[in-house]
């Protein structure tokens, strides 16, 4: 019993009343695209394992091999004695693939965003204020980074570059360094930013462009390494994760050598955290070896997503702006999303309801994420189950 238990319970009761209480649901993976829960095997359309790499033998083998050879832990933070040669090798491989001067590993995407943004908005670095322009649908970790830095975000309408340009123009006379912080693929709507236009806009306004590539890495862009390359050198910082299409864990920042060297000196989330362990690095290294060659899987993934969207539209289901492997089915009300999720589970499908505060109020949804490991038959099963379970408002 903790001192705050009565308050915790009251809070949880309020969440239950609003249909927004969450619980942890233990599952057991059964290979790519399948999951076992409550004694049943379900088709899994809720994971971010977009290429099915989480269970790929090369990742599993290299993770095991590197753990056997170099131990279970890195034993220290990067700046003490935790920078193994393995870290610098993976960073060099990643920078080569991203086409940047340098890259730096982080322990998670959340940690990268939460820690890198405050390091960039540092007054001593900038010699003044940061003016930070953010997409309204940015991921929670990007909001957290801005909040941790104590900056007030200037929010532009989702993916609306005209609005962003208007806001930049309105502030043209103000002192301060401009930053644009956005995502190349949005995690809950599955739509893409127009990276070439963003890069041109950043150039016109002298703004530093920060691009979160969590859901693009492995899936889109040259060699599947994200959309930042389309910015032709005008994306100042691309961050991404190894935890989604790359099948493992951890994250990266890719950019200039000076940027990475600065972060090594000034980014608390890198400086004060124990470095990633060899097993995680092994899975990263193997994923980087595989991903450039997976164009056929990437094409299939997008073709399946196109078919799923067409099927949903045929059923009258809105899919937000989806143009990627993430295809939401918008229900609007929280309880409708929960009910649909339950009905799908009865039909052997795992489709998790996403509710506020993860998405704006009134836009609850089931977020279906496709994987190249899904078969055409899996997709048909999903469409059939949704057609059966969906009750129009
Ligand atoms: N950025 C975005 C856009 C994300 O969707 C996520 C994961 N939900 C993260 C960052 C955090 O990455 P990680 O899961 O590696 O902590």
TrEMBL record:
<comment type="pathway">
    <text>Cofactor biosynthesis; biotin biosynthesis.</text>
</comment>
<dbReference type="GO" id="GO:0008710">
    <property type="term" value="F:8-amino-7-oxononanoate synthase activity"/>
</dbReference>
<keyword id="KW-0808">Transferase</keyword>
<comment type="subunit">
    <text>Homodimer.</text>
</comment>
<keyword id="KW-0012">Acyltransferase</keyword>
<dbReference type="GO" id="GO:0030170">
    <property type="term" value="F:pyridoxal phosphate binding"/>
</dbReference>
<protein>
    <recommendedName>
        <fullName>8-amino-7-ketopelargonate synthase</fullName>
        <ecNumber>2.3.1.47</ecNumber>
    </recommendedName>
</protein>
<keyword id="KW-0663">Pyridoxal phosphate</keyword>
<dbReference type="GO" id="GO:0009102">
    <property type="term" value="P:biotin biosynthetic process"/>
</dbReference>
<dbReference type="Pfam" id="PF00155">
    <property type="entry name" value="Aminotran_1_2"/>
</dbReference>
<dbReference type="InterPro" id="IPR004839">
    <property type="entry name" value="Aminotransferase_I/II_large"/>
</dbReference>
<dbReference type="InterPro" id="IPR001917">
    <property type="entry name" value="Aminotrans_II_pyridoxalP_BS"/>
</dbReference>
<feature type="modified residue" description="N6-(pyridoxal phosphate)lysine">
    <location>
        <position position="244"/>
    </location>
</feature>
<dbReference type="InterPro" id="IPR015424">
    <property type="entry name" value="PyrdxlP-dep_Trfase"/>
</dbReference>
<keyword id="KW-0614">Plasmid</keyword>
<feature type="domain" description="Aminotransferase class I/classII large">
    <location>
        <begin position="41"/>
        <end position="385"/>
    </location>
</feature>
<comment type="similarity">
    <text>Belongs to the class-II pyridoxal-phosphate-dependent aminotransferase family. BioF subfamily.</text>
</comment>
<dbReference type="InterPro" id="IPR050087">
    <property type="entry name" value="AON_synthase_class-II"/>
</dbReference>
<dbReference type="InterPro" id="IPR004723">
    <property type="entry name" value="AONS_Archaea/Proteobacteria"/>
</dbReference>
<comment type="function">
    <text>Catalyzes the decarboxylative condensation of pimeloyl-[acyl-carrier protein] and L-alanine to produce 8-amino-7-oxononanoate (AON), [acyl-carrier protein], and carbon dioxide.</text>
</comment>
<dbReference type="InterPro" id="IPR015422">
    <property type="entry name" value="PyrdxlP-dep_Trfase_small"/>
</dbReference>
<dbReference type="InterPro" id="IPR015421">
    <property type="entry name" value="PyrdxlP-dep_Trfase_major"/>
</dbReference>
<keyword id="KW-0093">Biotin biosynthesis</keyword>
């Amino acid at each position: 019993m903790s001192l705050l238990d009565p308050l915790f319970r009251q809070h949880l009761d309020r969440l239950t009343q609003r249909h927004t209480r969450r619980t942890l649901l233990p599952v057991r993976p059964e290979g790519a695209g399948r999951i076992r829960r409550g004694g049943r095997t379900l088709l899994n359309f809720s994971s971010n394992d977009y290429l099915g790499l989480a269970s790929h033998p090369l990742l599993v083998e290299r993770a095991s091999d590197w753990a056997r050879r170099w131990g279970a832990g890195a034993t220290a933070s990067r700046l003490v004695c935790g920078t193994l040669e393995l870290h610098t090798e993976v960073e060099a491989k990643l920078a080569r693939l991203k086409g940047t001067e340098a890259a730096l590993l982080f322990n998670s995407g959340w940690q990268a965003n939460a820690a890198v943004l405050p390091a960039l908005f540092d007054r001593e670095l900038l010699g003044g204020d940061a003016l930070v322009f953010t997409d309204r649908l940015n991921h929670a970790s990007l909001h957290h980074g801005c909040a941790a830095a104590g900056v007030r975000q200037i929010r532009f309408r989702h993916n609306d570059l005209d609005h962003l340009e208007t806001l930049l123009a309105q502030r043209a006379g103000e002192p301060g360094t401009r930053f644009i912080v956005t995502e190349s693929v949005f995690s809950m709507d599955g739509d893409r930013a127009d990276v070439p236009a963003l890069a041109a806009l950043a150039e016109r306004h002298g703004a530093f462009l920060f691009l979160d590539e969590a859901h693009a890495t492995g899936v889109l862009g040259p060699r599947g390494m994200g959309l930042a390359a389309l910015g032709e050198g005008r994306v100042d910082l691309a961050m991404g994760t190894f935890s989604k299409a790359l099948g493992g864990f951890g994250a990266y920042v890719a950019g200039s050598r000076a940027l990475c060297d600065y972060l090594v000196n000034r980014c608390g989330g890198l400086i004060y955290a124990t470095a990633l362990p060899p097993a995680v690095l092994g899975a990263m290294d193997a994923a980087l070896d595989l991903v450039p060659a997976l164009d056929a899987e990437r094409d299939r993934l997008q073709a399946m997503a196109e078919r799923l969207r067409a099927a949903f539209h045929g059923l009258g289901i809105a899919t937000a702006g989806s143009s990627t492997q993430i295809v939401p089915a918008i229900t609007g009300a929280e309880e409708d999303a929960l009910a649909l999720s339950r009905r799908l589970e009865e039909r052997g499908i795992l489709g998790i309801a996403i509710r506020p505060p993860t998405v704006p109020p009134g836009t609850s949804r089931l977020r279906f994420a496709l994987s190249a490991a899904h078969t055409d038959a899996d997709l048909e099963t999903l469409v059939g189950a949704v057609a059966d379970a969906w009750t129009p408002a």
